[in-house]
Amino acid sequence: MKVLLFLLLFLCETQSRATSKPNFVLLIADDLGIGDPGCYGNKTLRTPNIDGLATGGVKLTQHLAASPLCTPSRAALMTGRYPIRSGMAAQTRVGVFLFSASSGGLPSSEITFAKLLKNQGYSTALIGKWHLGVHCHNKSDFCHHPLNHGFDYFHGLPVTNLRDCKPGQGSVFTTGIRLLVFIPLQIIAIALLTLAVLHWLGLAHVPRAFFFCLLLLAASILGSLVCFLHYFRPLNCFLFRNYDITQQPLSYDNLTQRLTVDATQFIRRNAETPFLLVMAYLQVHTALFASQDFAGKSRHGIYGDAIEEMDWSVGQIMDVLEELNLAKDTLVYFTSDQGAHVEEVTPKGEAHGGSNGIYKGGKANNWEGGIRVPGLLRWPGVLQAGLEVHEPTSNMDVFPTVVKLAGSLLPDDRIIDGRDLMPLLLGKRQRSEHEFLFHYCNFYLNAVRWRPPNSTSIWKAFFFTPKFTPKGANGCFATHVCFCHGHFVTHHHPPLLFDLSKDPRERNPVTPTAEPRFQEILGAMQRAVDRHTQSVQKVPNQLSLGNLLWKPWLQMCCATSPSLSCQCDREQQNGGMSR
User: Fold this and answer.
1) CB within 8 A of 393, min separation 6: which ones?
2) Is 131 in the active site?
């Protein structure tokens, strides 16, 4: 009788916690592979705090990013919708924002979970990386800024962390520079030499003005390159605090520690009210960095150092929740925006990308290595510790899960593609509500996943796949990332079909000979695709070439900085930390 009474009290307490307004801490790594944390099988990287979320909560083993690239994946997480619905899916090769003075971004018409939670009385903060745009028409409208999307407080990077932001780490624009600068300069040089020889031999009369024009063109191209390399860092690599620039260009000195201190201070300030904290780490996107406390300490170079420092940060946030007795009132979620960037290799051959475990491919493609990401949820007293869920789930599911727990209704004027995770996490459902999931490569529908009812199979059909280079590689090393159309992909008729329940490595496509229901399976998947595509409405493309280009009238600079020198440092340097 006493045991029964105890169980009833426990269930009542669990139910009351699940129905009251919890706090939310959403931890988002950048480019972290599913094979990097210890709880997903890594034996050499030390991630005890991330692993603690798994042992103390729920581990999702088939958690999927809605896109294998930063900008569209983050748009999907924030809105619970496929990026194509909000116009956050590029039709060109460039699938993310590269300049702070671009005019594209997450439209103001989109509803983020932060907006809905703010309406429910939550204090909301985003600390770290945004990468969803800043301005539309002028540098004072802040139409795409986090504070226009439901966050009360923002401290972090408006665009993304790139090699170009850290001196001596190279450039992500190498291919573009070769095509737009070096090749034209070579053509001009050959033309000059040819014309000079013809003129000297008397075979052609070439006016001096023509030589002067070619030299002036070469000087202009070279000058543009010098200006680009000189100004890119200060104009694009800076920190915001709300609407104000606090550090331009950003300094990597103790950067993770500074952002972590700010995150813990936000929790302390709002300990008495419901809060939402999105901690969007800059790590482990290149340029890689780690503070002196972690540099050279891991077994995997600077990449491992960066992961272990990020793990330390997770521990600091969890410690504050425990200290303030907020752990049992807080749902903590940890993930990565997409898989590890396997093509990140330095000229010296040092790997700066992570591990996607047993899975094929990585960032920028829809093989499992590009979209299967860590998914950990911890809520003591509500979620069963040590539970593993093997059903397909999506980072879009964060939106309805958080919104419903906060007591808000889902928007009824738009399609929400995410599904509430709580029935699955609490054991009220045994199967994912996602019978079908659609995998986009930017604007283009790349693959579809089907979890049939009353079946153990998980089918995945590719309509096209990227051409890995060099042949036999596990990525597109020639272009640094895989592209989504043109001669960079191979189209498949019929689609390339895999049963992930038997072949998670995607090595052996299913054939009509081996699978009698081959055509039936593809037919069901095609009908689902048809229904889905009919639901997608045409919207303005936020990642069009016109929206991606740098616009000088949108460029932000420190208020006290003359011209384009753009240098200031109003950040408080936090040099020490507590282990």
Assistant:
1) 60, 62, 63, 64, 375, 419, 421, 424, 432, 434
2) yes
